Automatic annotation (TrEMBL):
Membrane topology: Peripheral membrane protein
Entry protein name: ATP-binding cassette domain-containing protein
Alphabetical list of SUPFAM superfamilies matching this protein: P-loop containing nucleoside triphosphate hydrolases
A GO MF label: ATP hydrolysis activity
PROSITE patterns linked to this entry: ABC_TRANSPORTER_1, ABC_TRANSPORTER_2
Statement: the UniProt record of this protein carries the keyword rRNA processing: no
Entry's localization field: Cell membrane
One BP annotation, GO: response to antibiotic
ABC transporter domain sequence ranges: 7-237
Keywords for the protein's UniProt record, in alphabetical order: Antibiotic resistance, ATP-binding, Nucleotide-binding, Transport
GO CC list: plasma membrane
InterPro entries: AAA+_ATPase (IPR003593), ABC_transporter-like_ATP-bd (IPR003439), ABC_transporter-like_CS (IPR017871), ABC_transporter_ATP-binding (IPR050763), P-loop_NTPase (IPR027417)
Length: 245
């Protein structure tokens, strides 16, 4: 029997004052899949991710995480989830290693697992030089590495990353790419948003385009000139909505 989708949304809606938000979205993230979410600023990507993670309550629709209704998800379910949305978890006065230890505890790792998980994360994200440096003294890119390491060190089954390459140098982007591909190969379902279509195409199995809080189409990760195809979808949707108004 196939595994349940790591994330499943049906008819998901949340509208803010002024009309922004998401409006009737259906979305699945399968086990073993990297599903990319792309759209212009304000398209609703972060709102959708926050709804999937139970950070926001929807006005309508339902979300399941690892087969469990998000409203009924317990600590054991959330221990299977890893996320970085908007800002990395990095307490300024703690060192990189201490931040990872906090993340490990928050994800439910016991004392016997914690040290090994932190050591693996430090190695995977090449944080050895910064493990004993306070986060307040780290560059934006290295704080991002700490945040990503903290989100992934417990080997979650369901992963949500909002613009994870923010601040990363080319070496950091490669480290992240390899990390996501390895986890997907092990069965994790990964939802990732990005403005960098070329990088998305290197890792994504599916690319979903969001505009004005709605899914308007998909892109082929192996397709030619993704940027042109993306802007054609968005422009066409904008034109249709203007005509309807």
């Amino acid at each position: 029997m196939s595994a349940a989708p790591r994330f499943e949304a049906r008819g998901l809606a949340r509208t803010f004052r002024g009309g922004a938000g998401v409006h009737g979205i259906d979305l699945d993230v399968a086990a073993g899949e990297i599903h990319a979410l792309v759209g212009l600023n304000g398209a609703g990507k972060t709102t959708l991710m926050r709804l999937l993670l139970g950070m926001l309550r929807p006005d309508a629709g339902a979300v399941r995480v690892c087969g469990v209704d998000v409203n009924r998800a317990d600590a054991a379910t959330w221990a299977r989830v890893g996320q970085l949305v908007e800002h990395p978890l990095a307490y300024a006065e703690l060192t990189g290693r201490a931040n990872l230890e906090v993340a490990a505890r928050l994800h439910g790792l016991g004392r016997a697992q914690l040290a090994a998980a932190v050591d693996r994360a430090v190695e995977e994200f090449d944080l050895g030089r910064y493990a004993d440096v306070r986060a307040s003294r780290l560059s934006l890119g290295n704080r991002q590495r700490v945040g990503l390491a903290g989100a992934l060190l417990h080997e979650p089954d369901a992963i949500v990353l909002d613009e994870p390459t923010n601040g990363l140098d080319p070496a950091g982007v490669i480290v992240l790419r390899e990390s996501l591909l390895r986890r997907a190969a092990a069965g994790a379902g990964i939802l990732v948003s990005s403005h960098h279509l070329d990088e998305v195409a290197r890792v994504a199995d599916r690319i979903t385009v969001v505009n004005d809080g709605r899914i308007i189409g998909t892109l082929d990760p192996g397709g030619f000139d993704l940027e042109r195809a993306f802007f054609a979808l968005v422009h066409g949707d904008d034109e249709r909505r203007r005509a309807a108004a």
